[in-house]
Amino acid sequence: MKLIASILLIFSVSACTVKPPCPIIDKHTSQRLDALIEQQVIPSQDKPTGEKIAAISQAFLGTPYQADTLIGTDSVPEQLVVNFNGVDCFTLLDYVAALSHASSRNDFFTQLRLTRYHQGQVSFTQRKHFFSDWFSLTPLNARDITDQLNTPTIKVTKQLNLKADGGRYLSGLPVTQRIINYIPANNINKATLNALQTGDYVGIYTPLAGLDVSHTGIIIKKGQQVWLRNASSLKKNNKVVDTPLLSYIKTRPGIVVARPL
């Protein structure tokens, strides 16, 4: 019922001028997209990638946290959803990354396809469900730089999508073996912080079987402070916020870092 209600609340743009499938986008998001293109994307085109990501993601600060905004399962056809009314930690990265490469409204839809889906094919099985998909599946959104940050790392072999009890997190999706590099939280030091750059994408490593990270965000450096810009589901936030990285990570296992291409 929740999925049906979500579909009823959004509609496709009436005049689709982009490569099929046409995006599903509501009026408010459509207007906000046009404003972002004009006020954030176009003015920042000559800036370094990290600064572009910082400027674009800043426009999402305060956006409500909302999970399950995408449409598609192993039994429901995948749709190219654009929804700026509410984002989760992963769709925030989707939209920011796509906008950072876009040159126009229609190009944003193309870039979102390439960002969210392996080979740009809009289907549930081709969606980049895991953070490490961003630097493992083409077209690559970023490169894994976790072991290049002057900090000792740990390598773990994961069977992504395979639960400890043998079940699957996502029905219809295969199990993928992948080596995950992460920096343990207690190894993060001044050298780590200095090596991070504004615009880097961060995944919060999880030891749970079948998953690579439990949360994602964007590194924002302001003076001597390093922030994690993220769509927070915490009750005290429930929106996109900037959180001091060190205070956030001190109770977490560690981080995986990817640098945008």
Automatic annotation (TrEMBL):
This is DUF1460 domain-containing protein. It comes from Mixta hanseatica. InterPro entries: AmiA-like, Papain-like_cys_pep_sf. The lineage of its organism: Bacteria, Pseudomonadati, Pseudomonadota, Gammaproteobacteria, Enterobacterales. The keyword Signal applies. Pfam families: AmiA-like. The keyword Signal applies. Keywords: Signal. Gene3D superfamilies: putative xylanase like domain, Putative xylanase like domain. Residues 1-15 form the signal peptide.
